[in-house]
């Protein structure tokens, strides 16, 4: 977007559908959108928290703005579809305009230590939790000949990954595959697709995952300083305003973006050439440090497995 041309990202008066809008990034976004004059639907599971957030958002809104919370588990495709339809009730059945797919969760663990359920929950809670809603949204919008935009939320760990994220990165990488293909298809219908690839975001989600994060995973992440959800939401909306397809929240993520990007549209052609050049040297160096952090953690992990009787025990 040029300095004097108006961005076509204009939440005012739009119906914004925010999954995971009751805390962290999604809640910060909901607040920002309400303040900009949007109608907002927030979706998450916990009813009590949802009602509380709905009241907080209503307090920020003008009387004509619609603010509603709907409780649903979005890892289920039927509830994902029904929830979207339900959100259209105050709008005469018209599909929402802007979608922000923030719902997600993360419980880092070594694969050796994960149950099958934890492994599957990881993928469901990162991929299907957004994919079902995206599918329902494009079908509804196209059927109604509506235009709009869908923003997925992946992660820095959707570009590159390391020990501890076998149940998280696969779904976050998969979201990138989905968004890349959908972006191309939606050129047919003038529906804009974006994907946000943030680094650490402070809040209850991160606190919960840090509570039992493997030491090696912690160590590799030392170089990243989590930012408040409001900053993260602002980075996302800045990218939307500029019309970026892949949106990052810092320069390190831009290095990862250029090193792992499936040939998607550039943000800024010349800046992207620079990021690619620097990352061609920087990323391999970073990978050496990450791998050595894993090797340095080896002794403690193997000793722990010895104590827990993992070795030569078919039941573990
Ligand atoms: N925090 C971080 O460091 C980073 C986070 N991300 C990603 O950004 C997004 C936001 O993260 P963060 O701010 O930490 O979010 P939180 O973990 O704090 O909040 C997650 C939100 O999603 C909702 N949610 C989770 N699972 C479901 C489900 N199955 N159905 C419906 N709603 C669900 C939660 O509500 P409820 O539990 O009531 O359903 C809550 O509102 C996530 O997708 C995360 O993976 C990316 C990079 C870094
Ligand atoms: C030149 C290259 C240098 C690279 C330095 C990189 C340092 C590692 C950053 C790891 C950041 C992880 C953030 C995402 C967290 C996330 O998604 C989880 N919290 C899940 O919720």
From TrEMBL:
Keyword Metal-binding: no
GO biological process, one term: 3-keto-sphinganine metabolic process
Catalytic activity: sphinganine + NADP(+) = 3-oxosphinganine + NADPH + H(+)
GO cellular component: endoplasmic reticulum membrane
Compartments, record wording: Endoplasmic reticulum
Enzyme Commission number(s) of this protein: 1.1.1.102
Enzyme class, first EC level, given as a word: oxidoreductase
Annotated signal peptide: none
Pathway connected to this protein: Sphingolipid metabolism; Lipid metabolism; sphingolipid metabolism
Keywords attached to this entry: Endoplasmic reticulum, Lipid metabolism, NADP, Oxidoreductase, Sphingolipid metabolism
Record-linked Gene3D superfamilies: NAD(P)-binding Rossmann-like Domain (3.40.50.720)
CDD domains, alphabetized: KDSR-like_SDR_c
Keyword NADP assigned: yes
Role this protein plays: Catalyzes the reduction of 3'-oxosphinganine (3-ketodihydrosphingosine/KDS) to sphinganine (dihydrosphingosine/DHS), the second step of de novo sphingolipid biosynthesis.
The protein, known as: 3-dehydrosphinganine reductase
Provenance organism: Kwoniella dendrophila CBS 6074
